[in-house]
């Protein structure tokens, strides 16, 4: 059997085309301003429910693109999300991507709970500690809160 595609970009292009067609069949075509993000999430997860469940603050994608072009620092709370970020493309825009979840200092501080006053627990979530440490270390930062259990 001869593979239809040889390059990852060809596979991605075909996948996004299939997703676009399927969204149309389902009557779930996202608005143009969020379509690229919705299709990327579906491509990553293979879950078309995201076309119904993702909600965006007005101009959120526009502002995110603007921030990326200004060299934004992206901080994730999972190494899997970090792995999914195209670092060369981000670097071309002057940006970087970071994840502190595996950092031994973050683990130790979370276990010890020096930020316990910020939570109702004796310790703290690693994502909270990582977020607070990053926030203290980056001048002028305006980070988005990490994902935390509710």
Walk me through what this model shows.
It is a single chain. With 150 residues, this protein is mainly alpha-helical. The protein has eight helices and two strands, in the order ααααβααβαα. It has helices spanning 8-26, 32-45, 50-53, 60-69, 79-83, 87-92, 104-112, 126-137, and strands at 73-76, 96-99. A two-stranded parallel ribbon has the order 1-2. The chain is elongated. Mean pLDDT is 82; it is low at 139-150.
Secondary-structure map:
Layout: H1 8-26, H2 32-45, H3 50-53, H4 60-69, E1 73-76, H5 79-83, H6 87-92, E2 96-99, H7 104-112, H8 126-137
Summarize this, please?
The protein has 150 residues and is mainly alpha-helical. Helices cover 53% and strands 5% of the residues. Strands 1-2 form a two-stranded parallel sheet.
């Amino acid at each position: 059997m001869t593979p239809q595609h040889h390059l990852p970009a060809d596979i991605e292009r075909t996948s996004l085309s299939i997703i676009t067609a399927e969204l149309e069949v389902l009557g779930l075509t996202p608005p143009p301003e969020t379509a690229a993000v919705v299709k990327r999430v579906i491509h990553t997860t293979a879950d078309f429910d995201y076309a119904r469940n993702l909600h965006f603050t007005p101009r959120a994608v526009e502002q995110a693109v603007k921030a990326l072009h200004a060299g934004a620092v992206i901080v994730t709370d999972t190494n899997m999300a970090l792995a999914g970020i195209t670092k060369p493309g981000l670097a071309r825009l002057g940006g970087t991507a970071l994840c502190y979840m595996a950092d031994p200092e973050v683990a130790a501080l979370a276990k010890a709970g020096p930020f316990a006053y910020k939570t109702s627990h004796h310790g703290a979530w690693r994502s909270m500690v990582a977020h607070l440490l990053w926030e203290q270390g980056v001048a002028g930062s305006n980070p988005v809160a990490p994902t935390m259990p509710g």
